[in-house]
Amino acid sequence: MDVFVPRTLDEALEIKAARPDAVPIAGGTDLMVELNLNRRRPRALLDVSRLAELRRCGREDGAVFLGAGVSYTRVIAELPECVPLAQASRAVGSPQIRNRGTVGGNLGTASPAGDALPVLAAYDAEIVVATRDGARALPWAQFLVGPKQTALPPDGLILGARWRIARGPGSFSKVGTRNAMVIAIASLCLVLDEEQRAVRVALGSVGPTVLRAPDAEAYAAEAMARAGTWDDPAALPAPREIEEWAQRVAGAARPIDDVRGTAAYRRHACAALARRALRWALEDRRAGGRA
Amino acid sequence: MSVRTLPVTRGGIGESVPRVDAVPKAKGTFLFASDLWAEDMLWGFTVRSPHPHARIRSIDVSGALAHPGVRAVLLAGDVPGRKTYGLEFADQPVLAWDRVRYAGEPVAIGAAEDPETARRAGERIVVDYEVLPAVTDMAQALRADAPRVHDFGNVLRHVHIVHGDPDAPADVWVEGYYETAVQDQAPLGPEAGLAIPAPDGGVDLYVATQWLHVDRQQIAPCLGLPAHKVRLHLAGVGGAFGAREDLSMQIHASLLALRTGRPVKIAYGREESFLGHVHRHPARIWMRHGARRDGTLVCVRARILVDGGAYASSSAAVIGNASTFACGPYEVPNALVDGTAVYTHNPPCGAMRGFGAVQVCFAHEAQMDRLARALGRDPVELRLRNALRTSSVLPTGQVVRGSAPVAAVIRRCAALPLPPEAPPAGRGDPRAYPGGCGNVSRGERLRRGVGFAVGYKNIAYSEGFDDASAARVRLRADAAGPIAEVRSAAAEVGQGIHTILAQIARTELGVERVAILPPDTGVGSAGSTSASRQTMMSGGAVQAACAAVREALFARVRRSLARPRGELRLAGGLVLLDGEPVGPIAAFLDEPVEAERVYHHRPTRPLDARGQGEPHAAFAFAAERAVVEVDEELGLVRVVQIAAAQDVGRALHPQSVQGQIEGGTAQGLGLALMEELQLRDGRIRNASFTDYLIPTIADMPPVVSALVEEPEPGAPYGAKGVGEPATIVATAAIVAALRDATGRELNRVPVRPDDLAGLAPPVAPVAPPPPPPQGSGPEPVPWAHGLATGQHELLQEPAHEGAGEDPRPWERTRGGTGS
Ligand SMILES: Cc1cc2nc3c(=O)[nH]c(=O)nc-3n(C[C@H](O)[C@H](O)[C@H](O)COP(=O)(O)OP(=O)(O)OC[C@H]3O[C@@H](n4cnc5c(N)ncnc54)[C@H](O)[C@@H]3O)c2cc1C
């Protein structure tokens, strides 16, 4: 097995162009497990963990850019204002995994249970991908094309994710049968976008890939508009409307039975998480937009 | 009057001294079995059956042998000695030949120059299987038309206990059905060992095990070697919990080493570890409890079914325990218990912490709560009213002779302070709510519940086994003073026996320097590190050996003293005569003093056809109270607090005892809430730590514990074993608390979120309880077929005075010699 250790992004992209079979390795918390379990035997590894270009993180022209190589520990420390992302990062694995694991790796693996992914979906993020010929941004849904499948070209690397900064509360929650270090049975990210008066919700672990619930989103945004909630945080949609929203979110799930949980429970959990997340967001707006 | 400071020996019994292995383990320098390495060693690998039941048509090893770096591939035909082995019964092939009986059964082994080559070589061995119908349901296994796992049928053992009049009338009856899933011991250290061929044609095997001598007893015949040519040495053990009682890679590595003439290491990965050791028996239990209006128990009827899987392992003893402990630590004047262990084509089940008592405790404690509800009585008071005590008669007719502070354990536990009220709902730290780090709650739909459970189990082996322990102690002096060397084959598996043995030597010999020599088969058997027995058994052996050394030393002292009368004592490195120092111990050690002693526990007697006998040597009791919070919508749980009171006889190392209570509780919590090895059609679906979940620190509540110290007569310092009781009661207490919080029936563990959220109904039996199998019991069926090996052979030295020529337990019953 060859191991390439490029010092710059350009060098890395040159290598990737010459050796498309070289598998990128960042924190290794997914890849090394695959290797150890004998599920994969790549001919070559390409270490992207030292590329400064992938370690950038912060605000750039009204957007947030999160480099592919930024660890969850750094997300928690450096992007606290991105509340759902920080909450998702805290929900990942253990301190050791959060120190090594990266959002780029979560995207690269593209598991429907990846905890950062519902957040990126609810942010309507773009995934920035580069090849030797240049970089381009793909909407998240065009990047995450299926279970463990991405639109990353064989000679490409993930540079990071970028999303417009939206004002408004939001949260990330994940359900598992253990109180830490657990793969989600169901997860949900909710974002309220005050400027666009939009509600965005994404679900993890309840379908072949991360799912949005557009019907529920539209319903909730309208219910909030009807109630005047967008202008007056104290004016709340009716409980019946919150319930309808929760059922519509659950209706968007496409869950299966597996060793981790049943489809029935997953759907049930989606409704519960949706109900809670919207109530929390409404509570937080009333409390002064603290989120 | 002069002030005199009495010499004291530091680090003796009763002190929570630092563990002898604490620093290397904390620093990461401790070598576990998987770290073993030898110059020029090969890496062994195992090819396992993917089918639960199949005939082997042919095995083609040519592809593997042609692979560069492969040094050997062996099949059943290459086993030079006995082709089968077993802890109690030799019904398990070293390597399968005509058929495989569970998915994961070894069919071929090999050795290669490096682990990667070994892995690849294994993939190149082609086995042609004819898949056969399998029986993977324990009730189905009892049907006449079920596929037979062994030629002699699917009944492994049936235990029938009749006590008093099981038809006695009662004022109130309650009835329940309970299921427990397959739990795994999940030791963090996977199975590993290193076999080194010796110039004498024998083998030195370094291995992580729980009982060196019983391993050798099984290995040597298969290798076709006399026992003395098979030398076992304990390697660093990364947890055991019963999983290392049966052999895993021992014979395989030895065969490969002898064949290749090179050291061979086998270290399982995590997935193979789940396939390569036995698990906790899943159980189905039907129970009926009858009581008088005033709460006095009148009668218990229990039908217990456990799935032993494809091979016997210790199933016979496990069903013995499940049956004899089915009525709980209560006085039950009338009882009828029928317990059956069956063979199926599931992976074998065997020993795990709690050993049969866990499953029945879950059931009998749920029954006690039902009874309390039916009678309108307080569940703690109901338990107190019926609590066993010394001189109580058990359903087996056995009279409780040792200490039995059941009422004290219940009272002490109930009196421990409760945790503060639930935090107010709001944006607190999500870890304060069920769901923890997943951030699912601000306190919605939160319900608190409290549950209580009491349980008990035997210490040391039962039903006629004389699992004695030997130890050798040598007292010598060097430039630094006196030092005691303790040689014992007791396996240190992380529980702390080495620290205890050193403490005992200090207390007995008055020296502070103690060396624990590496455990191996060069000294007599210490018996198994299981059944909560080593502190009592090997502690007893070291205490007795020290006493013999001390007497020999005193004889020397007396010879050299002018004033030979008076009481001699050893303390603080000094010899004292009537409390006055007469000189340093080292001054009398020009020659070392050495003694070896064997400790036996109180003899036990096997069960007869009506389940009567004196099966157990001693008992340990525990009570736990669990406080839980349930998110009743999401079905998630936070255990808020565990209060534990345990009967420990005497705490030789209080911190270790507390550690065992906490660790045991964690394992019980795991069974209550998450630990289940999921089987489908005989195959394990979650053989990884990704999907076999064990509790993390975020799942474990604080444990407040009370140690109840009523010395056990005849045991060293009165100490009882402490490793298992907490595991037995924790599951039952936590589920009781979940019932209290939700009002749901919850009759199966682990309890799943679906159960708590009301998405799944309670489990119902698919069929009525199966009738007791005809004509079997109490002896295990493989016994009758001449398969007794392992423990039975090793422990066949005449056990006790009057035990007769052949102390093998069931033979003794038959011969009617009893004791
Ligand atoms: C014990 C444990 C617990 C875990 N818990 C969680 C959890 O709670 N939630 C969760 O979501 N995940 C969890 N994971 C999975 C894992 O930690 C995450 O998916 C993490 O985000 C992976 O990041 P990494 O940097 O380690 O990826 P790596 O393992 O280095 O890479 C993962 C994949 O992404 C590709 N890749 C990485 N970087 C790039 C790049 N720049 N360009 C192109 N491809 C790239 C790699 O080729 C590989 O295919 C856990 C893993 C372990 C071992």
* Quaternary structure: heterodimer
Strand content of chain B: 15-25%
Q: How many angstroms separate the termini of chain A?
A: 47 Å
Poorly predicted sequence stretches spanning 5 or more consecutive residues of chain B: 798-819
Percent of residues in β-strands of chain A: 15-25%
Taking all residues together, what is the mean pLDDT of chain B? 95
Mean pLDDT of chain A: 96
Structural class of chain A: alpha+beta
The parts of chain A where pLDDT drops under 50 for at least 5 residues are none
CATH architecture identity of the domain at 467-599 in chain B: 2-Layer Sandwich
Q: Which structural category fits the helices and strands of chain B?
A: alpha+beta
Q: N-to-C terminal Cα separation of chain B, in Å?
A: 59 Å
Rg over alpha carbons of chain A = 19 Å
**What is the β-strand count of chain A?**
14
Number of helices of chain B: 18
Query: Most extensive interface, residues per chain?
Result: A-B, 35 and 40 residues
According to CATH, the fold-level topology of the domain at 467-599 in chain B is Aldehyde Oxidoreductase, domain 4
Which strand order spans the largest sheet of chain B, edge to edge or round the barrel? 3-7-1-14-11-12-13
Strand elements of chain B, count: 33
Look at the structure and name the CATH superfamily of the domain at 467-599 in chain B: Aldehyde oxidase/xanthine dehydrogenase, molybdopterin binding domain
Structure overview:
The complex is a heterodimer of chains A (291) and B (819). Chain A has 291 residues and is of the alpha+beta class. In chain A, 37% of the residues lie in helices and 23% in strands. Chain A is built from 11 helices and 14 strands. Chain A has helices spanning 9-18, 31-36, 72-78, 83-91, 95-100, 103-109, 116-122, 140-143, 214-227, 239-252, 263-286; strands spanning 2-4, 22-25, 44-47, 57-60, 63-67, 126-131, 134-139, 144-146, 149-150, 157-164, 170-175, 186-193, 198-204, 211-212. In chain A, strands 4-5-10-6-7 form a 5-stranded antiparallel sheet. Chain A has a 4-stranded antiparallel sheet with strand order 11-12-13-14, sandwiched between helices. In chain A, strand 4 and strand 5 (63-67) form a beta hairpin. In chain A, helix 10 (239-252) packs across helix 11 (263-286). Chain A starts with a strand and ends in a 5-residue tail after the last helix. The model of chain A has no long low-confidence stretch (mean pLDDT 96). Chain B is of the alpha+beta class. Chain B has a domain at 467-599: 2-Layer Sandwich (Aldehyde Oxidoreductase, domain 4), CATH 3.30.365.10. Chain B is 24% helix and 25% strand. Chain B contains 18 helices and 33 strands. In chain B, the strands form 9 sheets. In chain B, strands 3-7-1-14-11-12-13 form a 7-stranded mixed sheet, sandwiched between helices. A 6-stranded mixed sheet of chain B has the order 9-18-17-16-10-33. In chain B, strands 20-28-29-32 form a 4-stranded mixed sheet, sandwiched between helices. In chain B, strand 30 (679-680) and strand 31 (683-684) form a beta hairpin. Chain B is globular. The interface between A and B is large, with 35 and 40 residues. Bound molecules: flavin-adenine dinucleotide (FAD).
